[in-house]
Write a structure and sequence with these properties.
The complex is a heterodimer of chains A (about 110) and B (about 120).
Chain A lengths: L3 E4 L2 E5 L4 E7 L3 E9 L5 E7 L2 E5 L2 E6 L4 E6 L8 E9 L4 E3 L3 E6 L1
Chain B lengths: L4 E3 L2 E4 L5 E6 L6 E7 L5 E8 L2 E4 L8 E4 L6 E5 L8 E8 L12 E2 L3 E5 L1
Parallel strand pairs in B: 2-11
Antiparallel strand pairs in B: 1-3, 3-8, 4-5, 4-9, 5-6, 7-8, 9-10, 9-11
Classes of the chains: A mainly beta (about 110), B mainly beta (about 120).
């Protein structure tokens, strides 16, 4: 079992829909990142969280440390949001562990 | 301020050849991390380097793989005698601080090098 599990693996949505991607982890962490990987492109850091909630434009990230769970929400989704979203955690022994990613496709 | 630059973007090698992947960190960053992403899998840590030092290579395969980050020039990930299983995307990230990922740190990723071994 991976230490960082994401769900769903694949997600298809219609433009305008509200989207949620989930991340659960089994190790103690000091921080959690949400990363975005575009097709054929590099990886961009969207958020870094250690508690609570952060918002940037149409993206919202939340984390519940007690439940070891984080969610990434996209409001009013758009085709340009189509990408792979990766959850990564910084464990207390300084390792970074990555989820396998959630492939999001937003159709017009 | 240019981002993390990796080259080449795509690299095709025949089995048994050598692959050299380059990573130029962002200006002012002295910490470089290499990750490998196999098809349909998540990123896996390979090695963490500072200038002229390998800090953590616990994710590197024991044979054929090596990495360096010289005082001048880019970081190099070198794969000798490539095999089909080395085909993957290799990402480099740089950070201004020690061991990115903790509170107050951030890393910046390159576009990746897609290695195909034929």
């Amino acid at each position: 079992k991976n230490e960082v599990e994401q769900s769903p693996q694949n997600l298809t949505a219609q433009e305008g829909e509200f989207i949620t991607i989930n991340c659960s982890y089994s190790v103690g962490i000091s921080a959690l990142h949400w990363l975005q990987q575009h097709p054929g492109g590099g990886i961009v850091s969207l958020f870094m969280l250690s508690s609570g909630k952060k918002k940037h434009g149409r993206l919202i990230a939340t984390i519940n440390i007690q439940e070891k769970h984080s969610s990434l929400h996209i409001t009013a989704s758009h085709p340009r949001d189509s990408a792979v979203y990766i959850c990564a955690v910084k464990s207390w022994n300084n390792d970074m562990r990555f989820g396998a990613g959630t492939r999001l496709t937003v159709k017009p | 301020n240019a981002g993390v630059m990796q080259n080449p973007r795509h690299l095709v090698r025949r089995r048994g050849q050598e692959a050299r992947l380059r990573c130029s960190p962002m200006k002012g960053h002295s910490h470089v991390y290499w990750y490998r992403q196999l098809p349909e899998e998540g990123l896996k840590f390979m090695v963490y380097l500072q200038k002229e030092n390998i800090i953590d290579e616990s994710g590197m395969p024991k044979e054929r793989f090596s990495a360096e980050f010289p005082k001048e020039g880019p970081s190099i990930l070198r794969i000798q005698q490539v095999v089909r299983g080395d085909s993957a995307a290799y990402f480099c990230a740089s950070s201004p601080k020690l061991t990115w990922g903790g509170v107050g740190t951030e890393a910046f990723f390159g576009q990746g090098t897609r290695l195909t071994v034929v």
